[in-house]
């Protein structure tokens, strides 16, 4: 809609209204004029009659008296009337008594028109009564000026017509103004607003918002514009996307990361993209018209045609484990086939993705999920899965199998002393030997560290046969692993311990069977290692007791069930020069429990750290109490055993120093006893911590010296003060024995390094004498005192001091 169009409508509207008004005014006025003709005639006749009646009596007297002058005066007066141009008085003899004439109005077109419309009699004769009724009447003759009458009538009619037309025009103009004000102008504003809508991005305010038809029209336009804008925006967005899509689609096939083949249903290739050509190591034209089956290791031409025939319109199917042939080999792909119709022709679009990397990743994931990364053996997850399968099969078929749980003896010592690379090489060699000697249907797994587990399925029809075969397999394994390992110019020996559990047992799961084998393995270790044992209920009971001990340790600290006992350390004059703090557990039900029955469990469960901290604090507090009561000058130190796990805690040094400050104990009175294995495993860390504590005067002793690796390296580089000869070298010691030679070497080494030597486990005078003869002058053992509580120890200390003074 344009402004010109609006103007034309307004012009036509005005023209039509004016024309209709004129026509209606003309018709109305004409009809009124027409209706007034008779009235005008009547008025004319009445006027003429009045005029004649006015002069009729005077004319009759003039005739009677034959008064020419009066008659002349009367006629003259009559013609002075505008519509009378001739007047005559005729006496009773028919003679003109008087006659007056004036020139009538000339005949005009208006007069002619009036004569046609206003027809009336122009000659009037009025009889004059003279005297006798028998006489002929005299007459008063009057001729009307019809031209004048018609002209006046037409002028009057024209005036009425003009007034009517003017009134109609004024009324039409008023109507036009009202229509323009309330209709045309709002329409023009709306049209202008609509034209603005075409040129703006946002909708301008509505020019008309009154609650009428035009307001509804404007609101409708606004809503339509908003809807059109939304649709336009959507259309533009769609066009933009389609435009981009078109650009993208043009280069889609050529730049797609997947190989794309456009084929006919007969498997002939119509087009391929660059990726397909690169993957198949040839140019694109080489493939046009050839069957796709020529490049597939899985499908023939007939098979592809049959497959394509099953694909419906716009349906997609996925083909896996497909291999595409290339020059020099093939690679796996995942293909997706889609039927499409282009220009009324069916095509099959094949998208083939190279999944070599994915297949390799899946293989690696599978291996990571089910195989040990170091040895290539099955891991715990795969082993348990196969054990579950084997147990179900054996239960259904009344067959038996066995699980061998293996742990390398003292592997940790080799691994820590020579490094993890050597340890890993040994583990790999063990895996190879186990794979070589175990039956083909066996599954060998590594559970981590130096733990290996073997599954011997379908070993016999009875438990006895199965046990015999498992025992032979265990013996063969023991013999195989006794053979030295040659690794990196090292010849290493590593035996193994084996626990065996027979299955199936409907009461137990795969995890239970593994736990049974582990229990049997633990039994082997307690009996000396390098052997095998079968699981039995007694082993289970022992494991249950071990679990109860572990649970009880949690309550022992909470309920204050631990106690510190002290065993004196004496010199060659039987003077007490120190003591070793020893831990005892006073169980509320079983009484005193010795450390050998719970320390290892505490270390394996990690509770040894909390227990060790308790021992340190209680020992410091007890030493502080003795100092307050009075200590003899001969008392040099209190020895406290430190667990390797406790010693390697990050805050160990800070905790010890804090306890010294809390109890106000000088470090010179404290001796910390550590093991050789702890030094071997963490040489540098242990040395740094020892040096920090050494600054506070704390001395260090190597406990059970001679039973571990006995490296002279740490004796030279670490700040050690004391060597404690293990009781295994003291028991039964005599000067001429082989043990005496070992002890002599230990003492000589300590003397050269300026270290004090204390012999543990001295129980007889002969052992004491032999040690003194070899140069050892400090002792600890039952010969002098068993471990006793703090009160008895202090009493013994005081008594020994008095005896010495005396």
Automatic annotation (TrEMBL):
The chain crosses the membrane at residues 161-183. Residues 546-801 form the EAL domain. CDD domains: EAL, GGDEF. Gene3D superfamilies: 3.30.70.270, 6.10.340.10, EAL domain (3.20.20.450), PAS domain (3.30.450.20). It holds the Pfam family GGDEF. Keywords: Membrane, Transmembrane, Transmembrane helix. Residues 399-537 form the GGDEF domain. PANTHER family: BIOFILM ARCHITECTURE MAINTENANCE PROTEIN MBAA (PTHR44757:SF2), DIGUANYLATE CYCLASE DGCP (PTHR44757). This is EAL domain-containing protein. It comes from Amphritea atlantica.
């Amino acid at each position: 809609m344009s402004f010109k169009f609006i103007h034309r409508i307004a012009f036509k509207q005005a023209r039509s209204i004016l024309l209709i008004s004129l026509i209606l005014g003309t018709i109305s006025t004409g009809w009124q004029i027409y209706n007034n003709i008779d009235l005008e005639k009547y008025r004319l006749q009445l006027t003429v009659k009045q005029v004649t009646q006015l002069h009729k009596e005077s004319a009759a007297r003039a005739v009677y008296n034959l008064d020419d002058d009066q008659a002349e005066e009367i006629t003259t007066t009559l013609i002075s009337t505008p519509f009378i141009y001739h007047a005559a008085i005729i006496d009773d003899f028919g003679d003109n008594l008087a006659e007056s004439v004036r020139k009538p109005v000339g005949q005009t077109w208006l007069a002619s028109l009036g004569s046609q419309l206003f027809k009336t009699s122009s000659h009037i004769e009025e009889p004059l009564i003279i005297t006798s009724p028998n006489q002929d009447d005299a007459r008063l003759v009057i001729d009307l000026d019809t031209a004048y009458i018609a002209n006046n009538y037409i002028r009057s009619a024209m005036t009425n017509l003009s007034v009517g037309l003017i009134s109609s025009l004024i009324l039409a103009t008023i109507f036009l103004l009202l229509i323009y004000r309330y209709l045309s102008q709002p329409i023009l504003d709306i049209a202008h607003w609509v034209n603005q809508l075409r040129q703006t991005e946002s909708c301008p305010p509505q020019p008309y918002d009154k609650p009428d038809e035009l307001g509804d029209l404007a609101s409708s336009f606004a809503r339509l514009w908003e809807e059109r804008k939304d649709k336009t925006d959507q259309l533009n967005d769609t066009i933009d996307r389609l435009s981009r899509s078109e650009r993208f689609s043009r280069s889609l096939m050529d730049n797609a990361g997947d190989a794309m083949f456009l084929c006919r249903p007969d498997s002939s290739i119509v087009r391929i993209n660059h990726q397909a050509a690169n993957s198949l190591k040839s140019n694109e034209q080489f493939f046009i018209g050839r069957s796709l089956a020529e490049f597939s290791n899985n499908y023939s031409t007939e098979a592809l045609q049959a497959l394509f025939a099953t694909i419906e319109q716009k349906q997609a199917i996925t083909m896996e484990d497909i291999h595409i042939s290339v020059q020099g080999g093939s690679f796996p792909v995942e293909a997706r086939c889609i039927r499409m119709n282009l220009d009324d022709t069916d095509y099959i679009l094949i998208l083939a993705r190279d999944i070599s990397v994915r297949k390799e990743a899946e293989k690696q994931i599978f291996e990571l999920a089910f195989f040990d990364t170091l040895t290539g053996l099955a891991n715990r997850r795969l082993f348990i899965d196969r054990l579950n399968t084997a147990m179900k099969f054996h239960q259904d078929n009344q067959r038996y199998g066995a699980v061998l749980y293996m742990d390398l003896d003292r592997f940790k010592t080799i691994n820590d002393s020579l490094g993890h690379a050597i340890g890993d090489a040994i583990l790999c060699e063990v895996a190879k030997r186990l794979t070589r000697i175990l039956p083909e249907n066996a599954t060998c797994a590594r559970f981590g560290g130096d733990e290996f587990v073997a599954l011997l399925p379908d070993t016999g029809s009875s438990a006895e046969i199965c046990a015999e075969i498992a025992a032979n397999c265990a013996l063969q394994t023991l013999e195989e692993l006794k053979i030295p390992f040659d690794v990196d110019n090292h010849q290493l020996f590593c035996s193994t311990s084996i626990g065996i559990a027979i299955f199936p047992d409907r009461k137990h799961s795969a995890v239970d069977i593994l736990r049974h084998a582990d229990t049997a393995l633990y039994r082997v270790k307690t009996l000396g290692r390098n052997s095998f044992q079968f699981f039995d209920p007694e082993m289970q009971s022992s494991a249950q007791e071990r679990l109860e001990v572990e649970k009880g340790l949690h309550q022992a600290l909470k309920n204050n069930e631990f106690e510190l006992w002290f065993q004196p350390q004496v010199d060659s004059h039987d003077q007490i020069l120190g003591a070793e703090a020893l831990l005892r557990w006073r169980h509320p039900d079983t009484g005193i429990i010795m450390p050998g029955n719970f320390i290892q469990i505490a270390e394996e469960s990690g509770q040894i750290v909390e227990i060790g901290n308790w021992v340190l604090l209680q020992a410091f507090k007890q030493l502080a109490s003795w100092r307050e009561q009075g200590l003899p000058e001969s008392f040099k130190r209190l020895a406290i055993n430190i667990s390797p796990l406790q010693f390697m805690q990050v805050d160990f040094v800070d905790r010890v120093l804090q306890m010294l400050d809390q109890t106000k104990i000088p470090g010179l009175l404290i001796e910390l006893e550590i093991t050789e294995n702890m030094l071997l495993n963490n040489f540098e860390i242990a040395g740094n911590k020892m040096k920090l504590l050494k600054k506070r005067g704390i001395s260090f002793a190597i406990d059970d010296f001679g039973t571990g690796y006995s490296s002279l390296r740490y004796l030279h580089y670490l700040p050690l003060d004391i060597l404690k000869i293990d009781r295994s070298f003291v028991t039964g010691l005599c000067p001429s024995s082989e043990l005496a030679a070992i002890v002599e070497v230990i003492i000589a080494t300590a003397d050269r390094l300026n270290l004090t030597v204390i012999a543990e486990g001295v129980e007889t005078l002969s052992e004491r004498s032999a040690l003194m003869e070899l140069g050892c002058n400090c002792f600890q053992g039952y010969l002098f005192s068993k471990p006793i509580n703090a009160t008895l120890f202090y009493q013994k200390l005081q008594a020994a001091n008095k005896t010495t003074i005396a």
